[in-house]
Each structure stands twice: as structure tokens, then as C-alpha cells.
Amino acid sequence: MRSSKLTRTDAEPFEVRAHHLLCAICVRGGCDSPPAGRHLIDRLLKTIWQYPYVSLKITADIDLNRMHYLDLYTHRGQRSLPKNYEKRRDDYAGRRKDLETLRRLGIAPNTVLPAYLVYTILFRRAPTLEGICRSSSPTSDAWPECPHARKGYYEKITGERSYSSKEITELGEALDGKGIWAIIRPRTREDMSAAKIASVTQIQKADRLFIRPHHLLCILCTADAQEPFIYDNLVELRKRMEDNPNIPVTLTEGCCMVCDPCFEYHPGENLCIRTHIKDQLRDLNMLEKLGLKPGDTLSARELYERIYARIGSLRDICAWGDELDTAPFWSPCGGWKSEYFEKARRENLIVKGGAK
Predict the structure, then answer these.
(1) Is the dihedral of CA 88, 90, 96, 101 positive or negative?
(2) Residues 51 and 160 in one domain
(3) Is pLDDT at 152 greater than 60 in this prediction?
(4) Is the per-residue pLDDT at 2 higher than 70?
(5) What pLDDT score was predicted for residue 356?
(6) What is the percent of the chain with per-residue pLDDT over 70, rounded to a whole number?
(7) Cα dist from 86 to 73, 99, 100, whole Å
(8) Residue 214 has pLDDT above 50, yes or no
(9) Residue 51 included in any domain
């Protein structure tokens, strides 16, 4: 996964009509003649395959009905008709699909979101085409269904079962075509395995560790695990700090020593394609609680002394302190209600040193 021109800070978002996002799923499910046109959908799929975090500007025509009815029906003439008015008016079925898709996503027209997040939400909130491309009302000449809506192309992709982090890492490229990995290119097994070996070797040899702030809590939440995970380096880092609580730890913004083998880590861009947005806020919230700045370096012991003294619970960081779940890309961590943090504080984990 190399860096891409799509990720440049001055890159324009990829503009796509909302319901064409669904057409892309149908194409990956076997549809060879989407109403939107194969060239257009293939271009969308190719762009996301190149870079799963590409910014999509998701559009819908909501300006057509800004015409005053007197100008439109009695030729009052105070406002001219919008450009391509008749063609746009006759696309009422497509305009409805766009708005219904936006409703499922929970966003307004012209919202810009990374592709991975868009499809994560769609798979969750639109598992079928019912009510979008497949009508829940009697069909009519005025409201024809998409000819592919009942052929199962869409559900073939969205109906794929969920896979655990371990399974995704073990399967790698074998996931191509399964669920969201029909749209998002999976990281290869070889790439993840090589990254695991190289990053663990680096952790073992390093005289200073680099960890993003909120991962210090993730390390505590996996404290009962003795065998390393194949999809991250939390266990290795915890054991390194337990063995040497005086080892310097630099608090880094962005992906860190934890992340290299993860299936959601994009090494070309050094970001997590799933949590890139919310993890930045978690890190900054954590630093604020600790009274530290990005790039500060303390010993592992000093860091965890501060954590135990200044952070009341996982709720403060991992559930934002208010538990609000305003959107999937701002959702609290699912493990914030666990007792791992309190257990680690009671045991003075890492501060006292000594592996279990």
C-alpha cells in the first residue's frame, strides 16, 4: 500500500452521487450493467481500491425545487429556470434514491467523508436495497425499480458475515470480494506478517518507545493477554515496559509502534483507515488530562503514574466523558465499560515493574 496522489492536501474530493455508492456494491456483486454506467462506477471502485481513505464528496440535487411555483407554472419570469431543468426534474427517481441514501448515512448533501467510513456506515444501515432501489410500494410506470434491484447482487456483498480481527489478519487478500473488502482492498498476509516481524524486532531492540497517548490505555485493557496478537503490538509493548519501567516513552501523534501489523493500518500514508479521525481527538484529550504535549518523553513509570492519578476512568477518554455517539466515526470505544483500567490501577501495573 503505497502513498497516492489522492492523499495530497490539495487533492480535490472525488465527487459521487449518493445512490451510485450502492451501484458500486452491485457491480462488485456481479452486476455488469449498472444504470449509472459501467465506466463511471469502475472509476469510483478503482479510486477507492487505490486509496481507501480517499475523500468522497457525496452529492444530491436539492436545488431544483428552489424555483418559485409562479415562475415555473405561470411564467411570472422573475427567475429563470435552472440549467438543465427538465432533465433534472425527470430524474426524480434518482433524486429520491440519492436523498434516501444520504438519510441512511446520516449526512447532508455535499458532505465529504473518507470512503472507508462511508461504506462502513452503508453496510451497517443499508444491508438491503429495500426502500432505496427496491420499492416498498407497488411498482408503477412513474416509479420503476432498478432492473437489478431484486437480483441479489447487492446483498451478495453486504450479506457476508463479519470477520474477527484475527481472521482478517490471517485471511488477508483472501478476503477480496467479501463484505466491505469487496470495496476496500485488504492488506496482504505477506505485508502484515513482514510488518509484525520487523516492528516486534524494533520494539525489542529500542532504547526508546514511541506510543500514541490513547494506546497507553489500550495496553492496560489487554493486560490479561500473555500471548501476542497477530494484528497489533500491544502485548509486546506492555511486556517491554513491565521489564523496564524506566524506558523512555515518547508520546507521538498518529500511528505508533502498536500499529504496523494491523489490517486497518495504511503504511503508505501512516494512518488507520477506520479510526483516523476519532483517535486524534482521543490522543489530544489524553494529553490534556496528563498535562503533556505531543512529543513529550517520560519514563513508562512516570507516564503510568500520571495516568493512574489523573484519569478517573476509561469513560473520560474512550467514551468522551459524555458517552455521546453522534456518528460512527465518533463512536465511543466498545470496551470503555470494562474493569481493566481499575484493575491495572489497583495492581499498579507497569509502575511497579516486573512481568506477570
Answers:
(1) negative
(2) yes
(3) yes
(4) no
(5) 44
(6) 97
(7) 13, 19, 22
(8) yes
(9) yes
Helices (H), the chain: 20-28, 38-50, 69-73, 85-90, 92-105, 115-125, 153-158, 165-171, 189-205, 215-221, 234-243, 276-290, 300-310, 314-318, 340-347
Give backbone dihedrals phi and psi of 7, rounded to 5 degrees, phi first: -100, 0
What's the mean pLDDT when you consider all of the chain?
Answer: 94
Among 262, 203, 197, 270, smallest CA distance to 231 is for: 262
State the pLDDT at residue 77. 79
The H or E element that residue 10 is part of is: none
Same domain for 129 and 73, yes or no, is yes
C-alpha cell at 328: 460512527
Q: Are residues 155 and 206 in the same domain?
A: no
Number of domains, the chain: 2
End-to-end CA distance of the chain: 37
How many Å apart are CA 228 and CA 52, to the nearest integer?
27
Query: What percent of the chain stands above pLDDT 90?
Result: 84
221 contacts 341 by C-beta, under 8 angstroms = yes
Which residue type sits at 103?
R
Interatomic CA distance for residues 34 and 51, integer angstroms: 23
- 352 is a domain residue: no
- Amino acid residing at 181: W
Record the pTM.
Answer: 0.91
**C-alpha cell, 125:** 444501515
Amino acid at 309: A
What's the chain's Rg over C-alpha atoms? 24
Predicted confidence band of residue 69 (pLDDT cuts 50, 70, 90): confident
Last residue of a domain, one of 182, 203, 226: 182
Domain span at residue 238 reads: 189-347
Q: Write down the pLDDT at residue 92.
A: 94
Domain boundary among 134, 152, 182: 182
Contact 278, 330 (CB under 8 A): yes
| Residue 87 counted as domain residue | yes
What would the mean pLDDT of 339-350 be, rounded to a whole number?
A: 95
Q: Are 21 and 133 in contact (CB under 8 A)?
A: no
Could you tell me the CA-to-CA distances from 193 to 205, 225, 232, 254, 263 in Å, in that order?
A: 19, 20, 11, 21, 10
